[in-house]
Automatic annotation (TrEMBL):
Ranges in coiled-coil conformation: 371-429
UniProt keyword annotation of Coiled coil present: yes
UniProt protein name: Resolvase
Annotated ranges, domain Resolvase/invertase-type recombinase catalytic: 11-159
């Protein structure tokens, strides 16, 4: 690009642009654009050397382009008299953006010339032509966008993968194929979260320490682990059209606009495990620091007097400091009269409480848990019925728009009716084996007790959090242990 100094005379500016998908297209190369614009200047008798502003590899969908921004700064300084482009769409494909730019040019007495369309915005006829051409260009772009969307919608309904392959898969001929090495990591992440009680941070840290890279060969983060655990692709479900990316800020669309195709992809995680993880994700809120603190009951222990959280404090001189659990309302506000308790004693009472609990799981407790399991099963069934009906509704809309055949619509109707019938049958026959449930609870308690005795505190604590919802401390040796639903 030519370097220039800003002298007294106003200059002619030549603006050229190509986007990456236009590089090989005949007639729009940067060299050809420059040659045509310079020839036009010679034909008009403009002898001064024009200034070049070239955006190589930038789309016309928005105005955030380096050389266009530089050109606008020069316009604002008053150094430009005319701006030339080979075609209207070199500057912008959106009518509103074009009009905004031209208003700016007019304010600074700069004419805008498109040599292919043969008009100059200094004339009324040129401005009228510009608006008509801009409207036609925008209309055509919208038509292209609609055709692309319709084609992608059809491909998604056929189970074709339309974007970059997620971790655990390779993309071959627009179809996902399981990557054996990565899929083992996916299974491990789900196991660490569901069975070992690790949080997003702890999982990311462990994978990074072991040198396991992400799909983009970067380190794992809290966000990437959460996205993996919530991605339905791993249970074989294709979801498309979930995010609106038409603006700079991405927004999640209403779920009725999503394209959801069940059992369309090779699964890595069975549906039961995936659903169990989803139930756990929005569960009890534990502060991130509490999850990884080296204190067994951090984030779980509550005051029996005021129900506030009890956190670790340190008592005594520096040479003989000892850990204590102290009511946060007492410590921070003075509104609770609860005393502090030696942390090792509290953790010992908790362990003994678990041991006693494993010997005294009574029938009424198991029946209560069984009732909760049945309610969750019922909610899950109702959700499946709702999803089946929504899928059919989207198929009706696709048929109305001419995107699918009548036979495809009928097949979806039959599928919906079958799924609804199966779900209703499950709802009427759902039962819980209380003996099996009692055995499951006892085994989980035994595993946690063993972890407390043999594992580092942070790892033992992760397992405790898969079993215990909260621990309430009333007074010395008087604690209540509230278990999570074991389903």
């Amino acid at each position: 690009m030519n370097e220039f100094s800003l002298e007294n005379a106003r200059s002619v500016a030549l603006y050229c642009r190509v986007s990456t998908d236009e590089q090989a297209r005949e007639g729009v190369s940067l060299d050809e654009q420059q040659d045509r614009l310079k020839a036009y200047c010679r034909a008009m008798g403009w002898d001064e050397i024009p200034l070049l502003f070239i955006d190589d590899g930038y789309s016309a969908k928005n105005l955030d382009r380096p050389q266009l921004n530089k050109l606008l700064k020069e316009v604002d300084k008053g150094t430009i008299s005319r701006i030339l482009v080979t075609k209207l769409d070199r500057l912008s494909r959106r009518l509103l953006d074009l009009l905004k730019l031209i208003d700016t040019f007019q304010d600074h007495k700069v004419s805008f010339i498109s040599i292919s369309e043969s008009f100059d915005t200094n004339t009324p006829s040129g401005r009228l032509t510009l608006q008509v051409l801009g409207a036609v260009a925008e209309f055509e772009r919208e038509r292209i966008r609609e055709r692309v969307f319709d084609n992608m919608l059809h491909a998604a309904n056929q189970g074709k993968w339309l974007t970059q392959s997620p971790y655990g898969y390779d993309l071959i001929n627009k179809e996902l194929v399981i990557n054996d090495t990565e899929s083992k990591v996916v299974k491990r992440v789900f196991d660490l979260y569901l069975q070992k009680g690790f949080g997003y941070y702890s999982i990311a840290k462990q994978l990074n320490e072991e040198g396991i890279p992400s799909k983009q060969k970067k380190e794992w983060s809290i966000r990437s682990i959460k996205l993996m655990l919530t991605n339905p692709v791993y249970k074989g479900t294709l979801v498309w059209n979930r995010i609106d990316r038409s603006n700079q800020k991405q927004v999640e669309k209403d779920d009725e606009e999503w394209v959801v195709v069940e059992h369309a992809l090779p699964l890595i995680i069975d549906e039961h495990t995936w659903e169990a993880v989803q139930k756990k994700i929005p569960g009890k809120k534990i502060h991130p620091r509490s999850k990884t603190s080296p204190h067994l009951l951090g984030g779980l222990l509550k005051c029996g007097r005021c129900c506030a959280a009890m956190s670790i404090s340190w008592m005594g001189p520096k040479t003989k400091r000892r850990r204590v659990y102290r009511c946060s309302a007492n410590k921070n506000k003075g509104t609770c009269t609860s005393k502090w308790y030696n942390a090792s004693d509290v953790e010992s009472w908790f362990k003994r409480g678990l041991q006693q609990l494993s010997k005294s799981i009574n029938q009424s407790y198991v029946i209560m848990i069984a009732s909760q399991v049945k309610e969750e099963e019922k909610r899950e069934i109702q959700q499946q019925i709702h999803s089946a009906k929504n899928r059919y509704k989207r198929k009706v809309e696709a048929y109305t728009a001419g995107l699918i055949e009548l036979k495809d619509l009928q097949a979806e109707k039959d599928r919906m009716e079958r799924l609804v019938e199966e779900a209703k049958n499950r709802e009427s026959t759902t039962s819980v084996n209380t003996s099996e449930l009692e055995d499951k609870v006892n085994k989980k308690i035994a595993t946690v007790i063993d972890a407390i005795d043999n594992l580092p505190v942070v790892e033992a604590k992760s397992l405790v959090q898969t079993l215990v919802e909260k621990v309430v401390l009333y007074e010395e040796k008087n604690i209540e242990i509230v278990l999570l639903n074991p389903s």
